Amino acid sequence: MSDPSQDTFSQRVYHIVAAIPYGRLTTYGEVARLAGAPRAARQVGGLLSHLPEGSKLPWHRVVNRHGAISLSGEDFYRQLSVLQGEGLLLQDSGRFDLARYRWRPEDGG
DNA sequence: GCTTTGACTGCGG
DNA sequence: ACCGCAGCCAAAG
């Protein structure tokens, strides 16, 4: 109740990302919205980029509003590999079909 | 407590 | 549809 460690923006983001099911995607903006700060999409990416090394959070299931991977270099291919491993198909446009893979909280949470 | 930093987003051209 | 720019705001220094 009075413990702020459970009420911070970052804690909410971690909780939300942890709820994204295998084989599904969501966007930075959507996570921000669910966390109660619809304009803090950048912050979501910032938090995911600073995750501790042993984190179990499925950070790879968060992409940008176009359904594209926002990382670059080796990180890009790492995220791509994990998503493909979960059965997600990358379109020729270099994006994932959000209409098909987008996770919605009511869909299972 | 002010300044800098971004794994973003929306809008206009 | 693609590209560039300005706004956004929680965290870290």
From TrEMBL:
Residues 9-87 form the Methylated-DNA-[protein]-cysteine S-methyltransferase DNA binding domain. The keyword DNA damage applies. It comes from the Bacteria. Keywords: DNA damage. InterPro entries: ATL_DNA_repair, MethylDNA_cys_MeTrfase_DNA-bd, MethylDNA_cys_MeTrfase_DNAb, WH-like_DNA-bd_sf. Pfam families: DNA_binding_1 (PF01035). PANTHER family: 6-O-METHYLGUANINE DNA METHYLTRANSFERASE, ALKYLTRANSFERASE-LIKE PROTEIN 1. This is MGMT family protein. It comes from Candidatus Sodalis endolongispinus.
